[in-house]
Amino acid sequence: MIKATEGTTYLDPKFSSHYTGATNAGLIRGGYHFAHLDASSGATRRTTSFLTEVDGPVMVSPSPGCLISRAAVCSRLVPLLLGSRTLAIPTTPRQVWWSSCTGNSNAFVNTNPLVLARYSSSAGTPPGGWPYYTFWQYNDAYSFGGDSEVFNGDMAGLLRIARG
């Protein structure tokens, strides 16, 4: 996943070159949006802004302090605009965030694959009732830049997610 946007106005200046480079290297790639869902309004505007910049699988990364209702706006809006359910809701390296931000909600378990960000030697227990993680981000200092992630499944499953 390649960071594309943040908030309503920030477009990562390296997104296009990173996305093109990943495509040219034959990698399965997607973009993510760092959502400021703790703001008092604008979840729809923020999500729409992101979706104008990215094709392929998407991930919205909520900021600490987000409200479950605003994360739900993104969760509902992506399928409406893209016709797919490839949105993943990640957690931060400190899993207490999910509990404090959402009340340990299980609202996304049946609709959104989990991207678990935990920089450790093991993924640990997924939060919010997810029985397993779909992607585990285990490092934020990959040797070629970006994050290191592992997919919890086989190639057919990865392709299903990538194709929406």
Task: Report on this structure.
This protein has helices at about 15-25, 45-50, 70-80, 95-100, 155-164; strands at about 1-5, 10, 30-35, 60, 90, 115, 135-140, 150. It contains 5 helices and 8 strands; from the N terminus they run ββαβαβαβαβββα. Helix 2 (about 45-50) packs parallel to helix 3 (about 70-80). The strands form 2 sheets. The chain has a 4-stranded mixed beta sheet with strand order 2-1-3-4. A 4-stranded mixed beta sheet has the order 5-6-7-8, with no helix packed on it. It has one domain (about 1-164): Glycosidases (TIM Barrel, Alpha-Beta Barrel), CATH 3.20.20.80. The chain is α/β, with parallel strands linked by helices. Belongs to the glycosyl hydrolase 25 family. InterPro entries: GH, Glyco_hydro_25. This is Lysozyme. GO terms for molecular function: lysozyme activity.
